[in-house]
# Entry
Amino acid sequence: MSKIYNLKREVEKPPRLTGGHRLCAGCGAGVVVSGVLRALNQEDRAVVVNATSCLEVSTFMYPYTAYMDSFIHSAFENSAATCSGVEAAYNALKRRGIYPHRSSPLIIIVLLGYSYWGRLPCIRAFD
Ligand code: SF4
# Structure
């Protein structure tokens, strides 16, 4: 399989940010996040960490979520610490041999406050 990014192939994958969110029609945040999530392999497990922002309140409002992946809301200043906590938990589960998805890596996607802190998600992957 080619490793070259192919937009057509990516958009044919099932969405991981589903319809029904409350982002404005055509909002760039939704397009970017949807594209990033679709770029993952289908067997990948992702944890989305999102600081308070338009994106956060529009895609997640407990108990509803537009994400097919796990989601954590954190305060502006806490995203990196939250991500570290998820990584520590993941590593502890793997050390004890009780991580349920052995064959798939965990990918943590940190979405910063869209309007305040920039527009690029940070992605970390662990295997
Ligand atoms: S960032 Fe918020 S206000 Fe701006 S287009 Fe997106 S959803 Fe609408």
In short: The CA atoms of residues 16 and 37 lie 6 Å apart.
